[in-house]
Amino acid sequence: MADIGIVKTVLTGFSGAPGYTTLHFGKTGVLGWDYYAQKAIDHMVNAWTVMEPYIPTGEHMTVQSTVNVIDDLSGGLVDTFEGTEGANEGTYTGGFNPIASGVLISYSTGGVVNHHHVRGRTFIVPVGRNVGDSDGVIDPTVQTAMAGWFEALVDTADPNLHFGVYSRPFAPTLSHPVARAGSFWPATAGVVRSKLCVLRSRRD
What we know:
alpha+beta
């Protein structure tokens, strides 16, 4: 894989909005991103559809129509493609959990970079009161249903589109003088953590 498509969702309709979710997709085969951009957007829309029952009404998850394509080695922008914007909205009517708390989904890959396994994570913040109890434990039934998020992202209907984790390139510094190229690794598993997480910053 050489080029990576970046799909972004803008979240609005809650205190502290907007929020952002950015995911990476790779592709194989002969077809280009002019073909796969919309498919990547659709995967993201399908994943948010899984989450709608656990996100309060009034919160909107808008999957952006622009897919930026970057070179995996350098991280530099190489192209941009336009698709159709996706519009999801929460359907839970019981109100929000504390705004900074939400669901953590962890991703595994087969990659090893700089002697570490390549892993990723997505925070779904905020979520509804139906997700967890007062001790911060996620209802097991909800946890099982939310596993559909990962299944939607890795939909195998087209084996040439791959949701995954991007290991960014590293520029040398005085303390770490060896540069490192970027790399993309398809996700092999996604796990919804059993307890609510706390999002401490936009870069968590």
